[in-house]
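Pair request: fold both.
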Amino acid sequence: MRHRRMTAVLAALASLPIVLVPQAAHATESPQTVVVQPGDTLWNLSRRNGTTVEDLQRLNNLGTSTLIRIGQTLILHDDAAAIRARKTATAIAYAKAQVGKPYRFATAGPDTFDCSGLVMKAWEAAGYQLPRVTYDQIKVGERVTRDQLIPGDLVFTNNGGHVELYIGDDTVVNAGHTGVSVHLQDLPREEQIVAYVHLTDV
């Protein structure tokens, strides 16, 4: 009796369809760092990790050297935050390097700048293309509040007709008007500002 019952159960199980559940896919993201092993060179590390010798040198402050040591941890890739930070630093450095150059309407360097020309060229130096005039620049990115300002953001005054580059510490780089050179100044008062703009796709 018990044997017949077991046979019936096995027969019922055998009639059930077999459903294969796929395993969850493993993440295939590239590692951000690697520890140098015997035999490693910048060239073969770059080939294995989808980067270049030049990028490895830049990310690890190697200059033009290709010398690495066993056990050394190397950065392989930038993350999004690091890329943005580097581009922002480049834009700010460009803008600050223009301090002292004369303002001239409708110019964008290299010897004179108007406000939008300076901001456009600063971000262009970082590989980001802004429109030429303030009334188009103000439409790029997203609006933020004064408390949300971070270095690299755009600050608009004069009903959107003037733009300055925020560099942190309540300071902007400003190409103001005829007779005044490009200079650093305090962030304008809240009531003077019509928009704070954060560039979202840097």
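--- second member of the pair ---
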Amino acid sequence: MCVRQLVIALTLVVVVAGCASPSTTNMIGTARTPLDASEVLVYLEEPICFEAIALLTATSDASFAFGDQAKIDAALQRLREAAAAVGANGVLLKRTGEQRDDSVYVGTGLGRSTGNFGFGINIGKSFGLMDKTAEGVAIWVPEQCD
């Protein structure tokens, strides 16, 4: 019975670790009523007046986006979604970048053994995957300040 509990515990750890969020939100202001992500604008410069609500980070991890632009678009969409969840109508984009993700290994091997002696050879290639990242501030911009 102890082995079964250990297997269940390890399985839960792996499942929880695999469910890491591709975005984070750290509140620095007061949340508002959630909005639809399509209502959130991305600002490259500070508007004349705004209220900061949260610090946001997002990645393109697990987005199934291929190509640099598609990965940036996925990270920006996740920023919009996170901002909308705290009621922000804007995201002040602070930084974009890259981070190394999991790697993929492709290879083949050949082995031979006789008696107590074995010999093997393996060749392959490891491909590092890169995710795009975006950081910003969820903001509320009053209509008269646009």
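Observation on the second member. The two ends are 64 Å apart (CA to CA).
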